[in-house]
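TEACHING EXERCISE
Course module: macromolecular assemblies
Task: Read the component lines below, then compare them to the predicted structure of the full complex.
Student: A.B.
Group: 4
Components provided:
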Amino acid sequence: MPFIANSDADRAAMLARIGVSSVEELFGDIPEARRFPKLDLGEPLAELEVTREIESMAAKNLSASACAWFLGAGAYNHFIPAVVPALASRGEFLTAYTPYQPEVSQGTLQAIFEYQSMAAALLGMEVVNASHYDGATALAEAVLMAYNNGGGRRRILLPADLHPEYKEVIRTYFAAFDTKIEEYTGEPGKATLDDATCCLVAAYPDFSGEIHDLKAAADAAHAAGALFIVHADPIMCAVLKSPGELGADIVTAEGQALGNAMNYGGPFLGMMGVSSKLVRKLPGRIAGEARDHEGRRGFVLTLTAREQHIRREKAVSNICSNQGLVMLQTCIYLAAMGKTGLRTVAELCWNKAHYAASRIAALPGFKVETGNFFKEFTVRTPVPAGSLAEKLSRRGVVPGLPLSRYYPSRDRELLVCVTEMNTKAQIDLLVESLKEAAK
Amino acid sequence: MNLKPEPLVYELSSPGRIAVSLPERDVNATPIPASLARTDLPLPELDELTVVRHFTRLSQKNYSIDTHFYPLGSCTMKYNPKVNEQTASLSGWRNSHPLAGDEFSQGSIELIHRLQETLREIGGFEAVSLQPAAGAHGELSGVFMIRAWHQARGDVKRRKMLIPDSAHGTNPASCTMAGLAAVTIPSDAEGGVDLAALRAALDDTVAGIMITNPNTLGLFDPNIEEIARLVHEAGGLVYGDGANMNALTGVFKPGEAGIDVMHFNLHKTFSTPHGGGGPGAGMVGAGSKLKDFLPGPLAVLESGTYRMRMPSKSIGRMKSFYGNFGVLVRAYTYVRMLGAAGLRRLAENAVLNANYLKVLIEGTYPVKYPRRCMHEFVAMGDIAEGVHTLDVAKRLIDYGFHPPTIYFPLIVSEALMIEPTETEDKDTLDEFAEALLKIAEEAKSHPDLLHAAPSTTPIGRLDEVAAARNPVLCYRG
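Instructor-supplied answer key:
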C-alpha cells in the first residue's frame, strides 16, 4: 500500500502494545451501522498509471505555451524565471506548515518578511500581510475591513467596471450584512460620496484596462471621511505611480502575475497592504522582526491578537491557511527580477500593448475603446467577438476575452492583453488574424 | 539546520545586479506620460547565484515533513508524495487559462468533475464544490449556505450558531463573518458534546450547529446521530468541520449520518503540501437540503462535454475562477493511487499510530480523556514543578522533532496535541516517545535544559511581546 510505512509485523506489535487484537477494535465509537461503508471508487493505481491518466487529461487543455496568447482578464501569462520553481519546490519550504514554532521556521518567516517588504515597496504601502486567497477575496476582505471600521457607515462604492467575478465575490461576502453596495461609472473621483459611505473602491486599471485619476479619487474619498481602496495590477506598479503614492488607504492586488502560473485559475495570490494606522485591523498573518535573549535577529508571526486562533468570534477575519507557497514564489520572483528586471517586464508590456493597440486601431471596422492603458485594452469588433475568439483560438491565436462572457449585450467587445511573452511576430499574427476573421 | 545568520535580500543588494535575462524590445517604444510614471522602485538588486544561495540557505532554517517528524495536532502533517508535484506541474495545467472557455478546458474540468465525484463518495454527500481555497473558506461557505437556506424559507430569526467549546477558532470567526452569533456548547465528561446543554440551547433562533468529529481532542463523538437529530428537530442544520477527516476515510460517511454540509481540507487528509501556510483547498460537500446552495461554479458532464455551471440557488462565488486548481490535481493524484482500499487503510493506520503513541507516553504525560483516540490525542505537558508545555515543546526541537500543537484545544490546560499520521513508521514513533520520556526525566533532574531550549537552532526563543508592541513589519534600510 503506498504511503503507509508500517509493515504487517509492525502493526501486529503495535496492536499488542495497545492491547487490542485488531485495528477494527479501535473504531468502537463509530456507530456500528455506519462503520466501514463501501466506497464505490476505482482500484488503486500505480504511480505510472496515475501519471499517464493525468497527462492525458492535461493534454486536452488549450495551453498558452502552444499559442499566441492575448487573454488576461484576471489571470495573466507572464514569464517565470527558472529559479522561482526550482527554489520554491525545495521540500524544506514545500512541506513545512505555518511557522508557529519560530525557532524551526526561520526560513519561511524571513521569506514572509522579505515578501512583505518588497510587496510594500511595489504597492507603496506601509504594511503588507502574508497573503490572502486571491485578488478577489483580498478585495472583499478589504471592503469588509472598511465596513467594520466605518463607524456605522453602510454604503460601499464599487466601480461598475470592476472584474465581474470580483463583484460577485464581494456580494457573496456581504450577503448577511445590511449594506448598500452601489456601482459608479467612469472616473472614481466623480463618484457621489456622502457621510454614509465607508469606502470608495477603484481599480487600477479597471476591468476594461482604463487607468483613472486616483489622486482626485483619494482626495474625494478622504474629504467625505471614507477609506480609499485600490485594487491594482502589481506589474503595472513597477512603472506607474503606486497606489500608496496616490493616496490609497488599502491596496489589494492579484499577485499571480508575479511568478505564478495561470493554473486554470488557482492557486493565486491575494496581496493586501494598508497604511500603518490600519495595521491592527488587517486580516491574515503578518511576520515581524524580533530578538532572542542574546539579541539575535529573528522573525515571528506577530499582532496575532487580530486572528481567529486567539480571538475566535472577535477576530478581524476567519482566515487561517493562506497562499504561503504562492507568496514564496512571488518573493523569489521579486528578488530575482529586482529593481531593473521588474521595470523591464513592465516596460515590455507597455510598449508591446501600445504597439498592438495602434495596429489594431488601424484595422477597418476595429476600434480601441480604452484611452489610458497599461497591458490590457478593449477593442470594438466589427463582428461578434465570441465567435471571432472561438474561430481564432482553434488556429492557435487566442485574441482575448469576448466581453459577452460576462455581459451578453456587449457582444462586439474584446479585451486584449499583451505581455512580455508576446513577440512582435505574434502581435502581427494577431492583427492579421483579426483582419482576416472580420472579412 | 543552517545556523548562520542570513542577511535580508535588501542587505545582499548591490546596484546594477540582476538575476534574470529578458528579451530585447522588438517593437517601437511608446513613452510613458510623466504624469503617470513612477520615479523610483525600491526593490533589491541581486545576481542569480546570490538569489539561489539565499533562498536555499533560508530553506535550511526550516523543519519540514521532508526533513523531520512533524506531529502537529489538527494539521495532519503527512508525507506529501513527490508524484503529486509532478502531476500538478504539467504544462497543460500550468498554462491553462480559467477563461479560455469550457471547450478549450476539457482536461481541467474533467479533473474537477472526477475529484468532485470521488469526494462526494468518500463523504456520503449529494454534491461537492471545489471552489473554497482553504478549510476556513469552506467553513465560511457552509455557514453562508445554512444562512441562505433559512432565508430562502423566510425563517429570518435564526441568528445563532451552536459551537462546542473544543472547536477550532475558525468556526466562531466564520459565524461572525456570516452575521451569525456563535453560542458555545460545553463538552461533557467524556469529551463529547454535552447533550443536556445542547437540548437547552436549541430553540427557533438557532440556525444550526458546527461540529468537528472526531473533535479536537481526537475523540469521535458516538452521539453524532443523536446530535444531528436534535438539531434537525429544532429546525436547525448541521455543519461538519472536516479538519479531522484523516480518521474517517473509508470508515464513516458524515453525509449519511445527518451532516448537512461539510468541508474537507485537501491539504490535510489528501496529502497536498502545506507550503509554509498554504495554499490549501477546502472542498464543501452537501446533502439534499443544501446541495443547490453550494458555491460555484461546479463541473458537470452534459452529453459528453464537461461544463462549469452554477448551482440553482448558489450562494455565489467565494473566489475568482474555480478554486485552487493546482492543489486539486495533487489531491486527485493521491486518491487515485489509494483507491477505496487505500483510503480505509490510511484512516486505520492514522488511528493505529495515534493510539500506539498515546500508550507509549500517557503514563508520563497525562491524557485528560482516557478513551481510545482516533487520529490524534491531547496530552498535558506540565509534568514537573515549574515546567510547562512550552518548555517540553521547545526541548523536543533539540531532539530533532517538530513540536506538537500546543495550548490547543483551549479546554485542556497545558495541552500537547499530537497527530502522528499514517505515513510515519513505528521506529519514528518509538524514537519520539523515547525523547518525550527523556525530557520528562530532564524536567525533574535538569529543568534548566527545558527552560533554555531550544539550543540547536539558528535563534533562541524570541521576545514576541516586544515584537508586537513595536512592530517592525518591513525592511527599513
